[in-house]
Amino acid sequence: MADPILSTARITKRFGALTACDAVDFDLRPGEIHALIGPNGAGKSTFIRQITGEQVPDDGEVLFDGANINGLNV
Fold first, then answer.
1. What is the pLDDT of residue 1?
2. End-to-end alpha-carbon separation of the chain, Å?
3. Which of 2, 23, 27, 35 has a CA between 20 and 30 Å from the CA of residue 48?
């Protein structure tokens, strides 16, 4: 099994008392396709914004090819 090209390690995002993403771990390996589903307000968009660098996680790491890319606008 190939190493992940994109990973999140316990990323968390809070907006005041609301926790939109809570310690999310995710791995995406070359050739894989994933879907992100859930009800409105579940934190799907927040999760994607943290991966893309639009929002910086309050805790945890976003890794691309092993390098921490927290907060980089990629």
1. 81
2. 26
3. 2
CA distances (Å), origin 25, targets 20, 42 = 14, 15
Instruction: State the pTM of this model.
Output: 0.88
Contact 59, 70 (CB under 8 A): no
Q: pLDDT (tens digit, 9 = 90+) per residue, 3-57?
A: 999 999 999 999 999 999 999 999 999 999 999 999 999 999 999 999 999 999 9
- Residue tagged 């805790």 (tokens): 59
- How many of the other CB atoms lie within 10 Å of CB of 2? 8
Beta strand residue intervals within the chain, DSSP E: 6-15, 18-28, 59-64, 67-68
Q: Could you tell me the two tokens for 19?
A: 């926790």
Dist CA 13 CA 2 (whole Å): 29
